[in-house]
Every structure is written in structure tokens, then in C-alpha cells.
Amino acid sequence: MILTDITETLNFANVTSAIDNLLEQTWGLPSWAATTIECVLVGVGLLLVYALLALFYILYERKICAYIQCRVGPVRVGPWGLLQSFADMFKILIKELIDLKNVDKFLFALAPYLVIIASMMAFAVLPWGRGLQIIDFNIGIFFLVAVSSIGVLGILLAGWSSANKFTLIGAMRSGAQMVSYELSIGLSVLTMVCLSGTMSITGIVEGQNRLWYLFQGHIPAIIAFVIYLIAATAETNRGPFDLPEAESELTAGYHTEYSGIHFGFFYLAEYLNLFVVSGVASLLFLGGWQPLHIPGWEGFNDVMNHVPSIVWFLIKCFVISYIIIWFKWTFPRLRIDSLLKLEWKYLLPINLFNLVLMAMIIFCGWTL
Amino acid sequence: MANIQEKIAKLFPEAVCEQFDTLQVTIPDSRWHDLAVALKEDPDLCYDYLITIVGMDWKTSMGCVYYMMSTTRGNDVIAVKVLATGDREMPMIHSVYDVWAVATLYEREVYDFFGIVFVNNPDMRRLFLNIDWIGYPLRKDYNDDPNINPATTRSERQSDFTQSWVEEPDGRIVKTEPRIFAEDDFVVNIGPQHPSTHGVLRFRTAVDGETIKKIDVYMGYIHRGVEKLSEKLTYQQTLPFMDRLDYFSAHNYHHGLCRLIERAAGITISRRAEVIRVMMDELSRIASHCLFMGTFCMDLGATSMLFYTLRVREQILDIMERTCGARMTFNYDCIGGVMQDLDSNFQQDVKDLLAVIPANIKEYNKVFVGNVIAKQRMEGIGHLSKEDAIAYGVTGPSGRASGWSCDLRKIRPYSIYPELEFDEVLATEGDAMARFKVRLEEIVQSARILEQLVDNIPEGEYCVKVPKVLKLPVGHWWEMVEGCRGVFGLYLESDGSTQPYRLKIAPPCLPAAGVVDHITRGMKIADLIAIGGSLDYIIPDMDR
């Protein structure tokens, strides 16, 4: 009894339907107007969350990196350096956008927007909390995979339109890398969709009410999780897969020529992509916003239910992000040929085998 | 030594042999190439390592002094003096680029400073100065009026061509202008402003996708003309330049020049000063190798390693600061000993350092060397065979990683090194990993040397009395010491005045940069960074 009560009060659908009621019934607006206002509200909210998350992630990475490198990280601006990223972002906002000769001006200006739009669109289907989701439709996870690969287009355009040999090499590397690793991401997502039996985000999350998929699918799910983590790191161009922007080889790779907020867009998008891939990992493997439930431990499960669902989701994201950041600051960078070898000779065959294994396990009913 | 003299006299009756601090053979240019081949190939001579080429302007004549070492036969050094033919407009010597590979680079340097043309050398461009420079600075009649070569804010003129003087079969000498790269090569400029060249060095890299086809090393961006400047200063005043070549081997280089001048002036220094100098050399070596590991790992993308290695380096710099009063340009060794006595806490500081080194070495091995990606990036990358290492004159840890026993502290021991117990670190793989591991192990050996010395610093004066203005007798001298990056050679010629007539510095980093093209061909761009990092060159050292 208590369990349902708590989840009901923490359901964000209550808030959203209250707003909807207010607009349509109390104020008597027509439904098209109500929808427009709701869309604007969602857009503003999204932008705000987007900016705040990016700022948080910059600080988060700097602190973790400092910890790994026996330093303290930013401490001067605000308590524990909390305001450091605000200062940095303000600085980047007031920087001049340098006009370059010989660049393809339209594509050069378009590229950073493509990159940032791709990561922003992925936000639409992330399961933020119980009932807190921007759009819920039956191919949610497919949509997510689709929009996140628009980003590579922006990177290719940036590298090509800059009229610089370093950026061109960076874009070439990036193209090869992201197209290859998209396969691994796709296949490990597919493995988990097999297990869940649905592509709807709500469906996937609800399916993990009893137990997270990572445990439900045991061996193949864990393999898929590891592969997903590796591929996601490559997909977000982060170390040790940061070849497109390998600073010791290509100065800054594809975004060498960008300045001011256009550079800032690439920079933000990188952090937001980190959040998006962590979000997808927690959605597919760690139950999205579902609390940690252990079958049979009723008291424990009950306590877990008292934590708001959005907190669960964010904690899971930050933990997975921590692992990916940890990779970056402890591993040296791979070389382009070994990077592609890793994908095509190891990850892809393992992934295909894993998909078959998962299908067999589901067929035999060996899931937990 | 006598039988070498006989052997050369028998083969080349026109050669004149004299004994200075090394055996010196004087030979006319027409026979020089034959002598070079004989010196390298003859099993009784076997001078396979060309240490340096000293360009000389004796006012009445011009020429070169070549210093060579035999790596198989007792590591003895021979000098060959060759006078240039032709007038001062265009003096000429035959090139020996086909005998010693490194000569290609050294001959360019001599051409740059003296205008001596090396016939048959395929690449006779200037090496350091820009291509429109007027005059040859190290000639004694060089006009250094700033209006002739004004400082310009314009970009340096670039050329896709080099020049070469080739001798036709009928003896005529013809100038040709071959292309450096093929016409449709995709050439990427890596440097001079690039995070991984460790200074202002520029690689013009022809690439095919990610694969490197050819590299043209373009240097001289930090050339300060140390050799030219030294000719107008007293001997004491030339010393501070040694801090500014390879700034991580500042003590070692000072040690070399001080030894050279002291030997020339007949000064004997106290035992205490010798011990202090050697201890400082070894501390520098540890600090230098620590920094190498940090920056090398950073080049490979493992940024965190830098902080772990800098911890040890900081501790060493603190020790040096307390004794020398500086953390970078120490200017500590001076003629007659060292500048000031050791800090009262020096021994304890060194002991503290020695206590933390083993744990740190263990940590470096655990954190980086065993890493699977690190292995992939380093093993088998930039393979340099022992023969190539000798031919290209790559000394120091990089040479030893190829199996070439070239540690002067062992093979031609100087100062108090003969009394000390340590091992020369050798590896056979010759790849980037071997170069990394040799340096790691050299830290351990340097720590061993320090352990033996730290409790045995004898009492005595730290500096003997030396006249404020030193006058050296007429003559010339040759000295080599082991810097942190390899053989550091010095040639000094005196005309009896208070200033050096010619001071030639043979740095270890110049050949290290020269070999990059040879070992990167067919590798990836990322490998260029790994190879460049593992060779560990210091740009101010090669540019001087």
C-alpha cells in the first residue's frame, strides 16, 4: 500500500497534467494554443537544463581529472570552484567570432549548430523521471540512435569547410570512427531491445521495475553493457578514442579553426553527448529512473522508492559518466588503425554472437 | 694508435698525421672521399660513427675537421682535417653523405655557416638560417651589420626546391635544383607551433591518408648563434650559454665545457668539486628522464602521467634551487670548480630523494608500461637498428635502446666515473618502448651513483683560484661528455687571446631530429608523435 502511495506522489505526470488542466480547463484555451504554450515551456526548460548540465559536467570532469592527477582542480571561483564553469562560459560568450578567409562560410557556420542540435534532440526521449519525459512514442530508442548520428555530419562539415589540413584529417578520422562505432552501439542496443521486447522508452523502463536489465539478461547483458561503454566512449570522441581532436597530433582536430561560442558549441556538445550516452546506458541496462530493487527484499525496496525518480536517473548518469571520464584520464590514445581494428575485428563479431546468445537465452526463458 | 697512423700512411701517402689530444690526419680534398671510405670500411680502422663536422675559417684557408669514433675497436677518436678547394667565393669539399648518413645534415650546417659547398650532397640547403640570409656568419670576414640582414616581420620565403652541386664524370661541377617533395604530394606542416614538437621545430610531412611518405625537418627557429656569440666573449662568459642549449642537461654541458677549458689551461680542480659536479650531472639526468616520461606519455594522450613524473622532478629542482639558486638556468659549474658550496642540507635532501625513487619507478611501470594501449602504441614503433643508430649518430638513451653501447661514462670514462659502480643500460629492440624503458632504467642507475656519492663528498675547496681573464695557449682541443640525451662534443680552437677563436658545439639532439625521416616512413601520423617523443630531442639544443 505504502509503495503505491509514494510512487504516486513522486510521479511527474501529476505536475504535467496539472499544467495541462490549468491551461485548457481553468483558462479555457483551445487545445492548439495549450500545446503551443506547453512546447515553449518545454523548450525553455530544456535549454536551461542543457546549459546547466553542460556547466556541471565541465566542473565534474575537471574535478575528477584533478583527483586522478594529484591536484585539487578549480577552487578559486566560488566555493569549491563551483562558479568556475560559469566564468568560463561567460568568457566564451563574449569572445569574438573570428572571420576566416577561404572557408566555406555557410557550412562553416552551420556545422556547430548541427552538432549541438543532434545532442539536444536526443534529450527529447531520455527518461528523466517517472512521468517526466518530453515525448514518448513507440520507437523512442530507435529515434535516439538516429538523431545522435547526425552529430557526425556536423563534425565532417566542420573539418571540411575550415580549409585546413589538420581539420580535414580530424574529420576523416572522425567519420571513419563514428560510422564504425555506430554499429556497435546499434547492435548492443538491439540486444537489449530483444530482451525488453519494445522500443518504447516507457516500456523499457517499466520492464525493469522488478530487476534491472543488466541483471535480468545476465551474461549477454553484461557483454552488451561493456561493449556499449567502449563504443559510447568512441562515439562521443572522448579519450582514449579522441582521435578526431587528438591535441598532440592535430592541434585540435576538426574544431581547430573555430572560435568564441562556435567553439563553445562543440565543447558543450561533447559534454552533453557524454550525458546522453550515459543516460542511454542507464535506460537500457540500469533501469532508467527505476530505483534499485532486489527481489525479496521488501523493506529495502521500499526505502529505495522514497528517493525521487529523477535523482535515480541523474545518479546513474553521473556514475557511468565517471567511468567514461576515468578512461580518458588514465589511458593513452589509440592509433587510427588499432581503433578500427578493435571495432571491426573484435567488437563487431562479439556483438553479433552476443545478439544470438541473447535471443537463445530469451527463447529458452533463462532470463532472471 | 701508432699502427693506425702507419696504416693510414701506407694507404694514403699524402696524408699527414699529427698527434694532439686525438690523432689528426690532414688530407687533400681530392683524396678525402677515398680516405673516408677506408676509415669506415677497413676492418683495422672501422671509424663508423661520425661525431661531428667542425667547419673552420683559418682566414687564409677554409676547411673542416671531422671527428669520428670507432664503435667496434675501443671507441677511440680520430680527427681528419680537410682543406677546401676553390676560392672564398665558393669553397668546395667532397661530400661523405654516402659514408656516414648523418653527414647529410652536418654538411648542411657547415654550408649554412661557412658557405662551404659539399659536392654530391643531394640536399645543400641552409640548415638554420632562412633561405634569403646574406653572408655566412661564422666566417671571420662576415659583416654583421644589422641593415644587411634586418629583422623582418614578414614570413620567411619558402621554397619547394633544394639545391645540389653534382660532380659530372668529366670533373665539371653542376648545380641542380631538385624538388623536396613530389609535385602532387599532400604536405602537412607539423610545427613550428605544434604541441608535440616540444618547441619550435617544423616537420613538413608528406602524407598519404594517415601514412607518412616523407618528412622534411625544418629547423632553426630558435637559432641564437651561440657559437658566433662565443667568439666575442671571454672563456668564462661562454659558460652561461651551456644552460641554454639542452636546458635539462645544463649541469652536464657546463661540466663538458669546464673540463675542456680547464684541460686547455692546465687547471686541476679539487676532488670535492669533481664529486659535486658528478652528483649534479646525475641529478639532472634523473630530472630530465622524469620529464621525458611525462611529456612522452602526454604526447600519447596519457596526460595524467606527467603529474606523477613531475613530482620527482620538482623534488630535484628544489634541491638544485637550494644549492645553485636557480631551478632552470643554474650556471653552477665554473672554470676551476663550482660557483658556490653545497647547501648545508644537501645530503639529507638527496637521501630523501633516493628514498622515494624506487616507489615511483614501480608506480610508473604499473601505471603506464604495462598498459595495453601503451604497448600497442610503443612496441615495434619507430624501429631503429644498431647500424642505423651509428650511421645517423643517434647517441644517448635512444642509441642504447638500439643496442649501441655509447655511454661515454662507460666507454670513455671521464671525471670520477671510472671509480663508480653502475651499469650501462642497453636494449636490443630499438623501438619506442625500448627507448622508454632504457630511460626508466637509467634513473635507477643514476640513483645508484648518487647513493655511492652522497655520504662520500670529500672536504676541500669547491673552487680553485683561476685568473679573472683566462688566456689559453695556441692550439685546439676536443672534449666529449655524456649529456642526458647523448654525446655532447665540444671543439675549441684558441689563437692565444682571451677569446675562443672557434667554439664548436656538437649536440646530441641534432642527429636525433635528423633520423626522424628515416624511421617514420610508412608509419602513421600518430606514430610520428610517438617516435619524436621517444627520441626526446630538445629544440634549443639542435638549433643552438
Model description:
- The complex is a heterodimer of chains A (368) and B (544).
- By secondary structure, chain A is mostly helical.
- Chain A has one domain.
- Chain A is built from 16 helices and no strands.
- Chain A has helices at residues 2-9, 13-26, 31-68, 84-93, 105-123, 140-148, 151-161, 165-196, 201-206, 213-216, 218-235, 247-250, 260-284, 298-305, 309-330, 336-364.
- The model of chain B has no long low-confidence stretch (mean pLDDT 87).
- In chain B, helix 7 packs antiparallel against helix 8 (305-324), helix 7 (271-299) runs antiparallel to helix 14 (432-454) and helix 9 (346-369) packs antiparallel against helix 14 (432-454).
- In chain B, the strands form six sheets. A five-stranded mixed sheet of chain B has the order 1-2-5-4-3.
- In chain B, a hairpin with a 5-residue loop joins strand 8 and strand 9 (173-176).
- Chain B is α+β, with helices and mostly antiparallel strands and 544 residues long.
- The chains are: A mainly alpha (368), B alpha+beta (544).
- At the A-B interface, helix 8, helix 12 and helix 16 of A face strand 10, helix 7, helix 8, helix 10 and helix 17 of B.
